[in-house]
Amino acid sequence: MRAPASGAKVKRARYPDVVAIKKGHTAVFEVKSRSREGTVYVDKEQVEKLLSFAERAGGKAYIAIKIAGREWLFVPVNRLEDSGRSYRVSREAINEGMTIEQLEVDLGLVETLDKYVGKKQGNSGNLGESSLNS
Asked: Order of strands across the sheet with 18-22?
């Protein structure tokens, strides 16, 4: 869902740019786009409203960044750096941003095999040589 006030200069609106709900999991996004790589700045008020909405909705907050020629990247708000009147998403945080697939894992929508690997490693986790030579 895209909030009707997103992108507008509406000061009283307390809505994120995008709210996504799937299988009972909620994610809220402030969306930024850039023509080239570099640091992204987000107004403190926008971040505060994003966090407030996420808390009320029981969800997680992210900055969704689209850089021309690259796939969407999602940066959790805890990666933002305070720069005075705004928050900064560093180039490093952007490059380490999550893909849509990683976002689904972060939200608990899908599981990775890592969850199951530890349970089976009681017997070394690998096929023994005896089972390969049988």
From this structure: 18-22, 25-34, 60-67, 73-76
The SS3 assignment for 32 reads: strand
Q: How far apart are CA 65 and CA 92, in angstroms?
A: 13
65-114 pLDDT tens trace? 999 999 999 999 999 999 999 999 999 999 999 999 999 999 999 888 88
Residues 75 and 93: beta-carbon distance below 8 Å:
yes
**Domain ranges across the chain:** 18-132
The three-class DSSP label of residue 41 is strand
Higher pLDDT, 94 or 127: 94
Determine how many CB atoms are found less than 10 A away from the CB of residue 71: 10
3-state SS assignment for residue 55? helix
Predicted structure pTM score:
0.76
Residue type for position 16: P
18-132 architecture in CATH?
3-Layer(aba) Sandwich (3.40)
The β-bridge partners of 86 are 43
Provide the sign of the torsion angle of the four alpha carbons 88, 92, 93, 99, taken in this order. positive
